[in-house]
Amino acid sequence: xxxxxxxQARMSAFLVKMRAIMEQTQAKRIVPVNRIILGITGGIxxxxxxxxxRLLMKQGMEVQVAMTEAASHFITPTxxxxxxxxxxxxxxxxxxxxxxxxxNSSRAAxxxxxxxxxxxxxxxxxxxxxxxxxxxxCLARHCPLLVAPAMNREMWQNAATQRNIAQLLADGxxxxxxxxxxxxxxxxxxxxxxxxxxxxxxxxxxxxPKLFSGKQILITAGPTYEAIDAVRGITNRSSGKMGYAxxxxxxxxxxxxxxxxxxxxxxxxxxxxxxxxxxAAQMFEAVKQRAxxxxxxxxxxxxADYRIAxxxxxxxxxxxxxxxxxxxxxxDILAYVxxxxxxxxxxxxxxxxxxxxxxxEQKRCVKNVPLLVGNLAQQAIGSDDNELVLFDxxxxxxxxxxxxxxxxxxxxxxxxxLYEGADQ
Length: 424
Ligand code: PMT
What we know:
Blueprint: H1 8-24, E1 35-40, H2 47-58, E2 62-67, H3 77-84, H4 101-107, E3 111-117, H5 119-127, H6 133-139, E4 145-149, H7 153-157, H8 159-170, E5 174-175, E6 179-182, E7 188-192, H9 196-207, E8 216-221, E9 226-227, E10 233-234, H10 241-252, E11 256-261, E12 273-276, H11 280-291, E13 296-299, E14 306-308, E15 327-329, H12 333-338, E16 345-352, H13 356-367, E17 371-376, H14 377-380, E18 385-392, E19 395-403, H15 404-421
Parallel strand pairs: 1-2, 1-3, 3-4, 4-5, 8-11, 8-13, 11-12, 13-16, 16-17
Antiparallel strand pairs: 6-7, 9-10, 14-15, 17-18, 18-19
Helix pairs in contact: 2-3, 2-9, 4-6, 5-8, 10-15
Bound molecules: ligand PMT.
C-alpha cells in the first residue's frame, strides 16, 4: 500500500464523480427483512429494550413489541409503541380479531427475542407455562426463540435457574449472555443483560445464511509494521476494522476462520483462530503455512509494499547528516496465493485515492484474482463506515455506504455466489 496525497480540489471533484457512479449503480439488496417479536419482561434492564428496538429497526427488521404486565412497570407500552410505530401486545384479552393473538402473532414472526428475560419468565419457558400473552405466544411459536437473561447474580447462579437455562438450551432456545458486571442492586457478577448493541449484532448474526458451513477461510487484516530500527518503523493507518468485520461475517455465515492480523487495537472475533504478526514478511510466512488448506483466501490487509533493507538493531542516533533508508520490495502475499498450483478462491482489496475502477481492475488482472474489492482510502481507512465496489468477471457492483459489518455480510454473500459458480 502506498500513500498518494492529491490536491483538495481534485479530491472533491473525484469524490463527487465517484458518488454519482455509485448512485447510478443499482445496488441489489440481499439482506432479507426479518419479522421479529421483541418480548419484554419485568426487569430493570427493560430500559435497554428501547435502544434494542431502535437498532433492530435500523437493520431493516420489522419489530412487533409484546410486553408482560410486569414489564410495563419498568418501561411504558407508549414508549415502545412510539418507537416501533405499532400498538404493543400486552394482553390476551384485548385482541380485537379472532381472540387468537398468541397464535396470530407467533405465526407472523421469523423469531421471538425476549430481552430482558427475567428468572421468572425463563422458568415459565422451561416448564411450558402459558398464563399470559407473551408466554403463550412463545409456547405457540413455529419460529426460533432467543432469550437475553437479566437478573441478580444470586438468581442467575441459583440451581433452579441453571436447570431452567439447561432445559431451554436442550429445547433449542438460543441464550444470549448474560454478561458480568455491576448490577442495578449494586452487586457485581453474572446476570447483567448484554448491551443493546451486542444483542442487535447477535440477532443479526443469527439470521445470517450459513453459506460457508464446513469451509476454511483465511483472511489477512490490519496494517504491517516494517522496522527502521529498534524503536521506529514504517506503517500505515489501517485499523483492521474492515478485515475484522469480514472475519466476523464469515464466522456468522458458518465458516471456520483463520485471521492473520497485523498490529491493531481491536478485540479478536470470537471463534476465529487469530495469528498475530507484525511485518509483511511475518504475514507472508503465516499465510504460506495455511494457504494450501483453505477454500477461500481474502486479503484485506494493507501490506507495506517495501521494507527497510537493513533495519538497525539499536536506535539510530540523530545527526545533522541526511539519513538515507534503502527500501526493498516485500513479497506480494495475494499474488503468491493466487499463483499456487491449486489455489483457493482468492479475493483482493484495493484502497485507492483516485481512479478506483481503473486501478482496481488493473490490480485484479495483475494479481489474477476473480474478485477485487475496491474502496476509497480517504473514506475507508480507520472509519467505522465504508462503501465498497466489487469488481469481478460480470462487471462491478456497488455496496453503498454502511457500517463495515453490514458491508462484510453482503460481501460474503457475494463471495458465496461466485465461489459456488467457480469450478471447485
Ligand atoms: O483497516 P481499515 O482501517 O478498516 O481499512 C480497510 C482498508 C482500507 C485497509 C481495506 O479495506 C483495504 O482496502 N485493504 C487493501 C489495501 C490496499 O490498498 O492494498 P494494496 O493495493 O497495497 O494491495 C492490493 C491487494 O494485495 C490487497 O488485497 C492486499 O492485501 C494485497 N497485498 C498487497 C501487497 C502485498 N505485499 N501483499 C498483498 O497481499
